[in-house]
Design a protein that fits this description.
Blueprint: H1 11-19, E1 23-25, H2 32-36, E2 49-52, H3 56-68, E3 73-76, E4 92-95, E5 102-105, E6 110-114, H4 119-127, E7 131-132, H5 143-148, H6 156-159, E8 166-172, E9 178-181, H7 187-193, E10 202-209, E11 211-212, E12 216-221, E13 224-225, H8 229-240, E14 247-255, E15 270-278, H9 282-288, H10 290-293, E16 304-307, H11 308-313, E17 324-332, H12 337-348, E18 356-361, H13 365-368, E19 383-391, H14 397-411, H15 430-437, H16 441-451
Parallel strand pairs: 2-4, 3-4
Antiparallel strand pairs: 1-2, 5-6, 6-10, 7-11, 8-9, 8-10, 12-15, 12-16, 13-15, 14-15, 14-18, 17-19, 18-19
This protein binds flavin-adenine dinucleotide.
């Protein structure tokens, strides 16, 4: 390792600059502070170099330079990882934020997406052809990190995880070799990249299967007073148990944000929001989701057809870059009354009015894929809880982190041992990683040992290679 950063001065850096086409940003440069910042304002890392790549050649050059100088290497896709895994102290950041092109092939219903793209880029290009790739629910989230870690969106029960729609992946390995992983090439790598995170190299592009949907979709978004949540979440649980695959539904505990889209008298009110999206024709969706719209008497019911593009951007204002975030998750084998009561009780004492607790209903197509078919192991949990603590004042860090950990601990008796790594702080430890990857863990170690034996890519949910 290179603790004093001396390598970033002198001839070696000069020759790196000559070979590199994009920008290389260092401490002291005007852009340094904005380039090292990621979405979570809690993260304050100081890399020695940030290499903004313009293409595959730059990625190979950066990996080679980091290797030659034994520099810790982080890879930045969309920079949205809550644990700040897009950046590192003292090392080199391979920054892909300039690589955002999306090319749709409408005839074959596929899209080739560069690894620095965000979901807003993909949605815009695919909707121009009446198609979608099943991504996340916030348009600014990066395609790369979300896809490598699985990916749950508004159409998850119909089309499965985001990683289930990947046809092929281009990447540069730790040895600086460019290759394509697909069902017929480097199959071991293709298996590992779908759920195993950024462990195996730097992805340069994904090829996705696309599906017909939009321009409008039917949505349900009723809101009820939080006091009604214990009874209504039980009802919601029972209704979604028999839901069609087209219905992807979540149950959220939140306070109505202080935002102009909500009626003024309701802002700040603690609420229970069972929300659902139908991946199919709008009228069919309205009928199929009526039972989910009628769980009780809502205080507000904005349900109705919505533009898919608008839906995909709808939550953006509530998760702005630079605020403070601490998120945790657990997969749930069921959703007991006790689990529901615990969540609601914690929510009544939540230190931040902006924190969101969500239970996503899973199943459908997700569960039809065998747990060993890709590296993403959890296929049978019917629910996943995510605790998304969100606040702005650094003075409130401790109280929010403590509350989140307590609720996460309190949910343990009601949950499986597995977590969703894309909603995690990278502090959960190896036991949780082993439990989460389960029967796939040893195979991931094998693939890691083959493609990155020196563990050069370790600023991630790290799988340790065998020595
Ligand atoms: C507001 C918000 C909303 C979200 N909504 C959803 C959602 O709806 N569904 C869902 O499943 N998840 C969601 N997430 C979680 C999201 O999946 C993770 O935060 C994910 O890590 C983001 O990917 P990124 O490319 O932006 O991250 P980054 O911070 O850039 O990277 C995350 C990890 O992936 C690695 N990585 C990134 N790019 C590459 C690459 N090209 N090659 C190799 N490794 C790479 C990084 O090294 C790092 O370890 C959300 C997150 C936020 C902040």
């Amino acid at each position: 390792m290179n603790p004093d950063n001396s390598i970033v001065d002198g001839d070696a850096l000069g020759s790196f600059r000559q070979q590199f086409n994009g920008e290389i940003i260092q401490p002291g440069d005007e852009k340094y502070d904005s380039a090292r910042r990621v979405w979570n304002g809690m993260i304050d890392k100081h890399p020695a170099l940030i290499a903004r790549c313009t293409g595959v050649a730059d990625i190979i050059t950066a990996i080679t330079y980091a290797h030659e100088h034994d520099m810790l290497t982080a890879v930045r896709g969309g920079g949205h990882n809550v644990a700040g895994l897009a950046v590192c102290d003292d090392g080199l950041v391979i920054d892909l934020s300039e690589l955002r092109s999306v090319h749709v092939d409408p005839e074959n219903r596929t899209a080739r997406v560069e690894a620095g793209a965000i979901w807003g880029d993909v949605d815009r290009e695919t909707q121009a052809f009446g198609l979608i790739a099943p991504g996340g629910v916030v348009s600014e989230t990066g395609v790369a990190g979300l896809t490598l870690g699985g990916g749950y969106g508004h159409t998850r029960r119909k089309y499965g995880l985001t990683s289930d729609s990947v046809r092929s992946i281009d990447l540069v390995t730790a040895a600086g070799e460019f290759l394509t992983a697909s069902p017929t090439e480097h199959e071991d790598l293709f298996w590992a990249l779908r759920g195993g995170g950024g462990n195996f190299g730097v992805v340069t592009a994904f090829e996705f299967d696309l599906y017909e949907l939009g321009p409008e979709v039917m949505t349900v978004g009723t809101m009820y007073p939080l006091e009604e949540a214990p009874a209504l979440m039980r009802q919601w649980r029972d209704v979604v148990a028999d839901a069609a695959d087209e219905i992807s539904s979540s149950a959220a505990l939140w306070r109505i944000p202080d935002h102009t889209v909500f009626p003024e008298p309701l802002r700040g009110k603690p609420v229970f929001i069972p929300s659902s999206v139908y991946a199919g024709p709008v009228e069919e969706g309205a009928k199929a989701m009526q039972p989910l719209r009628e769980l009780g008497t809502p205080i507000v019911d904005p349900s109705g057809p919505e533009s898919y593009l608008e839906l995909q951007r709808k939550f953006d204002p509530f998760f702005p870059a630079g605020d403070r975030y601490y998120w945790k998750s657990r997969f749930m084998g069921d959703l007991s009354g006790e689990a529901i009561d615990t969540m609601v009780e914690y929510m009544t004492k939540c230190p931040s009015p902006r924190t969101l607790v969500t239970v996503r209903a899973l199943g459908g197509q997700i569960a039809r894929v065998d747990p060993t078919e890709t590296a993403f192991t959890d296929r049978d949990s019917p629910f996943m809880i995510s605790i998304d603590s969100t606040w702005t004042d650094p003075e409130e860090d401790d109280v929010n982190v403590e509350w989140t950990r307590k609720l996460w601990d309190a949910m343990a008796p009601h949950a499986t041992e597995r977590i969703y790594f894309n909603f995690a702080m990278n502090e959960e430890g190896e036991d949780v990683a082993r439990a989460t990857f389960g029967e796939n863990y040893e195979r991931l170690v094998e693939v890691k040992s083959r493609y990155d034996p020196e563990n050069r890519f370790r600023v991630n949910q790290n799988i340790l290679p065998t020595v």
